[in-house]
Amino acid sequence: MLCAAICGALTFKLPFFSGTLQTDPAKGPSLQELTAVSKSLLLIIGVVITLGILINIFNYKKRRQQLLLTIVLVLLSLLNIVLYWFAHTKFIDGTFSLSALLALAIPVFLILAARGISKDERLIKSADRLR
User: What is the pLDDT of residue 35?
Assistant: First the structure.
């Protein structure tokens, strides 16, 4: 989860997509970068994901709640990727940055965390049966 939180924090500074954006016909196209800060909805979802992951790290005593929050964060991170995809279509020309992998890595890390949480829950249940 810590890796997912770090990736989430880095998306605020590093670009997902860099390219030419047609903003004003009189001025012509301009070179811009698509980051989590460039669009308000991306910013809100990015903050919610990053803070949710950080809160979820310290929620280790309530494993069911932690697993549920992790699944919700996976869905939010997938929504975030879809929003990045639709935001990049407004560019005329450009390329995906290597740092776009950070946004794609967040749901992967969260899925791995959810697997670990569910394994811990099963281990605790089996230990309770032995008592």
Answer: 87
Instruction: Return the bridge partners of 95, or none.
Output: 18
Task: List, edge to edge, every strand of the sheet that includes 91-96.
Answer: 28-34, 17-24, 91-96
Q: How far apart are CA 92 and CA 88, in angstroms?
A: 9
- Which is it for strands 91-96 and 28-34: parallel, antiparallel or unpaired? unpaired
Taking only the tens place, the pLDDT of each residue in 80-90 is 999 999 988 88
Burial string for 81-97 (b: 16+ CB within 10 Å, else e) reads eebbeebbeebeebeeb
Distance (Å, whole) CA 78 – CA 103: 9
Phi, psi of 120 (to 5 degrees): -60, -40
Among the residues of 1-131, which ranges form H helices?
2-10, 40-57, 63-88, 100-130
The amino acid at 28: G
